């Protein structure tokens, strides 16, 4: 059994090394069966995909490395009047996040036309969402969350996403990486303390939200003084967020206080430090991943089927299931930046799949409105089983390929028969398995197997199972008859 597992992980690792004229290609593309689209000439050509982010640092280096097309083959638009397209991250630091996301979209849908759009702040986001819809861009990949609630789909960002969806935009949004950095509870009027243990050099940034309109609450970031007392360093503002605070050591805590209204729950999110044992994974989808109009995405490390521990999950504050899908993460789409992680990477993969599905629907003459596109994408998702404490989301994994491998089997006659198996697939065959008379004989990585098997006199049942990386599986059975040689 151990050998079997090693063989199967070997199959997966073979994908990791895949490169092409387009540079290194994310393992997630193969995990979702994007290669089954490419094999049929479907690459997203004819579809514009907006990669919406706070910043696109490192763009020229990525283009020079062949990981993104030349600038004249992309479009750009900035809603950051201070830093332009380079932008800054949520904490004000230079960032290459948007560039990494664009590389992933291109790996999955190399024919799609990339539109790189960045923004700063809530106003910048609202302008960008309106610009994308006004320009008729059909797919958006947005891998960011803001931490000022509410998180029930009614906040300003969620409403902007819903408006864009209403104008024909398939808005793919990260659910967030907050499962271990979220708290939901009823705060005390005297203040409820949430323990945090930031390291020197970390930056603290928090947000909160609630749904009950009668409620009001504030967050206070506090530092312990030499005499043991606590002093407030920053308090949440009218956007229900705290300004970033740099930590240079010492003991810190977060206090959430209800200042008005009934005993009703609030959601508290942390951008950086976790809440440890008081973290509440349920309800940790931030905004605008909470929008009904968003196709919200959780993260599954690409080799497996279990969501990452950090991957935000629903329900939303108003009780809706989110995320809508999960995508592969912890991938390498640019050899210089191994291990791009989080629901960010998962989201960019799903946006790439959206471009492929749209391309295919165009070629088949099928409707490509946002409702039809969304239904097609979610309908293809790989079932990851029922939601549970660990599996979390219950949402399926996005994929293009829904066709199981075809299997060819030949067997030589005689007591020691040579069985040859070959599986065919437009995507990538992960493994072929052989059973004889109900007994497992072998699982081989990849599409081929040549195996000698002992047959008993009379009828023998040979079964072959082939699996592709997108999770499709097929089985064929053959009956081999061995005649007793002594009777001749
Ligand atoms: Ca690449
Ligand atoms: Ca397949």
Can you offer a commentary on this structure?
This protein is globular. Strands 4-5-3-6-7-17-18 form a seven-stranded parallel sheet, with helices on both faces. A four-stranded antiparallel sheet has the order 9-15-12-13, with no helix packed on it. A four-stranded antiparallel sheet has the order 22-21-24-25. Helix 6 (121-134) runs parallel beside helix 7 (156-166) and helix 8 (342-363) packs across helix 9. It has three domains: 16-179 and 283-380, Rossmann fold; 182-278, Jelly Rolls, CATH 2.60.120.380; 406-487, Sandwich (Immunoglobulin-like), CATH 2.60.40.10. It contains nine helices and 25 strands. By secondary structure, it is of the alpha/beta class. 21% of the residues lie in helices and 30% in strands. It has helices spanning 2-16, 27-31, 34-38, 59-64, 97-108, 121-134, 156-166, 342-363, 370-380, and strands at residues 19-20, 23-24, 48-53, 75-79, 113-119, 139-142, 170-174, 182-185, 192-195, 203-204, 206-209, 216-224, 230-235, 245-246, 252-260, 266-270, 294-301, 325-329, 406-411, 416-424, 429-436, 439-445, 448-454, 458-468, 473-482. The model is unreliable at 1-17 and 388-392 (pLDDT under 50). Bound molecules: calcium ion (CA) (2 copies).
């Amino acid at each position: 059994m151990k050998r079997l597992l090693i063989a199967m992980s070997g199959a997966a690792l073979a994908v990791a090394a895949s490169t092409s004229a387009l540079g290194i290609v994310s393992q997630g593309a193969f995990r979702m069966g994007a290669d089954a689209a490419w094999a049929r000439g479907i690459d997203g050509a004819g579809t514009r995909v907006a990669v919406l982010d706070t910043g696109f640092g490192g763009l020229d280096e990525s283009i020079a490395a062949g990981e993104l097309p030349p600038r004249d083959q992309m479009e750009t638009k900035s809603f950051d009047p201070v830093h332009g397209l380079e932008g800054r991250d949520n904490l004000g630091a230079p960032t290459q996040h948007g560039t990494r996301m664009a590389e992933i979209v291109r790996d999955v849908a190399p024919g799609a036309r990339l539109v790189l759009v960045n923004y700063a702040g809530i106003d910048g986001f609202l302008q960008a969402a309106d610009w994308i819809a006004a320009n008729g861009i059909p797919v958006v990949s947005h891998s960011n969350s803001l931490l000022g609630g509410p998180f029930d789909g009614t906040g300003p960002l969620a409403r902007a996403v819903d408006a864009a969806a209403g104008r024909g935009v398939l808005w793919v949004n990260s659910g967030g990486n907050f499962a271990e950095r979220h708290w939901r509870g009823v705060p005390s009027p005297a203040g409820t303390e949430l323990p945090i243990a930031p390291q020197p050099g970390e930056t603290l940034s928090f947000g909160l939200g609630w749904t009950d309109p009668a409620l009001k609450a504030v967050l206070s970031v506090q530092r312990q003084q030499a005499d043991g007392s606590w002093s407030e360093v920053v308090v949440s503002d009218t956007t229900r967020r705290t300004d970033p605070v740099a930590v240079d050591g010492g003991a810190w805590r977060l206090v959430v206080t209800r200042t008005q209204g009934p005993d009703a729950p609030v959601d508290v999110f942390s951008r950086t430090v976790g809440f440890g044992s008081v973290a509440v994974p349920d309800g940790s989808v931030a905004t605008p991943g909470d929008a009904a109009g968003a196709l919200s995405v959780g993260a599954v490390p690409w080799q497996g089927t279990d969501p990452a521990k950090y991957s935000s999950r629903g329900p939303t504050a108003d009780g809706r299931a989110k995320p809508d899908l999960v995508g592969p993460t912890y991938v390498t789409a640019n050899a210089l930046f191994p291990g791009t992680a989080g629901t960010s990477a998962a989201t960019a993969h799903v946006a790439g799949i959206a471009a492929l599905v749209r391309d295919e629907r165009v070629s088949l003459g099928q409707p490509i409105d946002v409702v039809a596109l969304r239904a097609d994408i979610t309908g293809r998702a790989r079932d990851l089983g029922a939601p549970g404490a660990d599996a979390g989301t219950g949402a399926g994994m996005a994929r293009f390929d829904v066709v199981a491998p075809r299997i060819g089997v030949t067997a030589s006659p005689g007591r020691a028969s040579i069985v040859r198996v070959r599986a065919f697939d437009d995507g990538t065959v992960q493994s072929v398995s052989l059973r004889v008379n109900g007994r497992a004989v072998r699982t081989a990585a990849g599409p081929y197997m040549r195996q000698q098997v002992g047959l008993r006199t009379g009828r023998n049942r040979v079964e072959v199972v082939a699996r592709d990386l997108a999770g499709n599986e097929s089985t064929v059975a053959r009956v081999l008859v061995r005649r007793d040689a002594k009777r001749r």
